[in-house]
Specification:
This protein has 121 residues and is an alpha+beta fold. It contains 2 helices and 3 strands; from the N terminus they run ααβββ. It has a 3-stranded antiparallel beta sheet, with helices on one face. Strand 1 and strand 2 form a beta hairpin.
Amino acid sequence: MIRPSRGSAVVEFILVSVPLLLLSMTVVAVGLASLAMAVLRDSAVEGARYAALADQNSAAGCIRASLLARQAIGRFANVSAVCDSSAAGFEVVELRAQIAMFGLFTQDRELYAISQAPREN
């Protein structure tokens, strides 16, 4: 006698595991992007505060911000920093990061963080 349900376990496993795998990869990607954005914000704030100190300059704050960001997310992101002193007496730090998720998605996905700190006299 032939059983009509023979081999259905494999098909059911594939039908369930593929969407579950895609969902898991999505959760990991969103988590990594959230971590990267938090690191960029915190690094930009720290770099601006450091550059605003009386004995430092914009270049030192820029180096500090990019170093902090690269230490935390440098494995899966390309980080670039731009720093400037505004005429109004503020130090401005801008950080940008291109995120590479699973080594596949490196299109024009860029995270951006900017911070300002008043210059000490």
